[in-house]
Amino acid sequence: MKIIFSIGLLFISIISIAQPKKVIADKIVAQVGNKIILRSDIFNAISDYKRQGQEASLPPNPECAFLEGQLIQKALVLQAEKDSLPVSEEEVEAAIDNQIRAFIREYGSQQVLEEVAGKSIFQIKEDFKQTFKDRKLSDAMRAKIIENIKVTPNEVRAFYNKIPKDSLAYYESELELLQIIAIPKANKDVDDYIMKQLYEYKRQVESGSKRFDQLAKIYTDDPGSKETGGQYNINRGDKFWDPTFLSTCFKLKEGQISNVIKSKFGYHIIQLVSRSGDDAVVRHILKIPPITEEEIKLSIAKLDSIKEQLKRKEYDFGFAVSKFSDDENSKTVGGQISGRDGSGFITIDQLDKEMVALIKDVKPGDYATPQVFTDERGQKKVRLIYYKSRTNPHIENVKDDYSKLSLRLIEEKKQQKLETWIKEHLPYYYITIDSEFKDCKSLAEWLKYAKKN
Predict the structure, then answer these.
(1) 223-241: per-residue pLDDT in tens?
(2) CA 277 to chain centre
(3) Which CATH superfamily is domain 14-151+407-451 in?
(4) Alpha-carbon distance 33 to 66, whole Å?
């Protein structure tokens, strides 16, 4: 019995919020204990997978795989309830709120979401409660089952030796890079000019001669909201907004425009469009003060000085990042530049062209010359790169790839532990499966016990 645990546990979309008029009546297709699975649960999940552009990764007979995922979830929920695993209402509410905010971002506004769903936000949240609680319970039970799984060096070597030689992975050269980022600061005269511009936009809107969204489309320096007239849907609990920006939004009255504020991105004026509790729709105009060559030179000089101190070993790179970097995100990871898999190693094709050229003549263990670059928001910054290490292209082996092999082995052992747990518990559940799924080979174990019922 191959468990595809990640498939079918929870696929939530507007397809499942706004149930359309059905051509074929919905029905119960499976049951584990007192937990039922509807036909729509399976086929809405498959539709959502396709809608997200993942059709190519669907397994053969996807309805069988998705039903298996739902059966596993129900069994885990039943055991979690029996074991009284703690899942608080606050956890469930927070998860639902995050999902609702994602929907609002996808559909553009709360009003559009409610129109598409045919329900109010309150009704959508109520509909989601049991689904989200079940997900939390199943996650908690799965974590309990697979907790404390470890591997020894001997197990990793044995795991490696079982891999057919023609199936061993080939790894391109990977780099370990760290960075300190300096953000050049505009001079006071430029700041004052930008603030005057924003106050003039505020005056024009308040006088009725211009609309806020029209001005935002023309003048904002925020590419993420330019086309929408500076509009965003926000929540008081969101962590990714600048704190000053967020707090200003919730101090405004509907229609009111803020004074000019400064965030880590630049200067803003904000208009509150509407608010419902901790959710709000706002518009803003962002102006990023232009940086002159003089300010850039100052930032380069600052990083040059830090580079020399590092080379003299006056402090280590981690300390330098925490003390001197202007980028809060890189501070939390010690300046590490992460690859697509989230690891500390990155392939050359994942670097921007400027960085590729920068490190071309730098050797591992050395520092590159401070480089000016433009981030995704169009802001000029300067970075000091520490080229920590580089792996050679190679066929997978225990010496160079022990951590990757051990992670794969741990995942395999978790899968095996979960499969064993399911097999051991199947005889104790009341199980039914509709005849529509009787030919699903992946459900053989489940069908065996379903026949007894």
Answers:
(1) 888 888 999 988 887 777 8
(2) 25
(3) Porin chaperone SurA, peptide-binding domain (1.10.4030.10)
(4) 19
